[in-house]
Write a structure and sequence with these properties.
Layout (H helix, E strand, L loop, with lengths): L5 H20 L18 H6 L8 E9 L5 E10 H9 L5 E5 L21 E8 L5 E8 L5 E10 L4
Antiparallel strand pairs: 1-2, 2-6, 3-4, 4-5, 5-6
């Protein structure tokens, strides 16, 4: 007859409970955070994205949704000066930028259609928000003329275990 130590029995029981609780949830992701009530506001966007909006922004539109992992997603578009767009990308910690002459082809972008009207190529900025857990940001800037810029911001939280 075999005897098991109390520690071994407790370890087996704990492992069984953990396996059962994980399989009952039916999801590979934790429960999503509660979605803020009402329409998305200009106050919640900078906190979530970790970026300061330009002082001269115009025509701000914000959408809030969820991604496949249940994380919050903010997509915002706005107009600003070319200088305001440059300062916008510089405002975030852990945020790098590069210039290009074609829209991004990275499959991580949620938006699939990008503006093509630009006189000075594209600027792409990206990086994680270090003050919000698992939030990544992507920005595409186009320049309709030498003085103005159109900005697309995507910020999304990935729920992971």
């Amino acid at each position: 007859m075999r005897t098991y130590s109390l520690f071994a029995a407790a370890s087996i029981a704990a492992a069984a409970m953990l396996a059962t609780s994980c399989s009952l949830s039916g999801s590979d992701h934790p429960e999503p955070e509660p979605e803020p009530s009402g329409a998305p506001t200009v106050e919640e966007l900078p906190d979530f994205a970790g970026l300061s909006l330009p002082d001269d922004l115009d025509d701000l539109e914000i959408e809030r949704s969820r991604n496949d992992s249940g994380g919050l997603v903010y997509i915002a578009t706005f107009s600003t000066s070319a200088e305001g767009a440059e300062l916008f990308c510089e405002s975030g910690e852990n945020f790098s930028s590069y210039r290009g002459f074609a829209p991004p082809e990275d499959p991580k972008w949620i938006t699939r259609e990008f503006p093509e009207n630009t006189v000075d190529g594209y600027t792409v900025c990206s990086g994680a928000n270090l003050r919000q857990e698992n939030v990544v940001r992507r920005v595409l800037i186009t320049f309709p003329d030498d003085e103005s810029a159109e900005v697309l911001l995507e910020a999304e939280r990935f729920n992971t275990r």
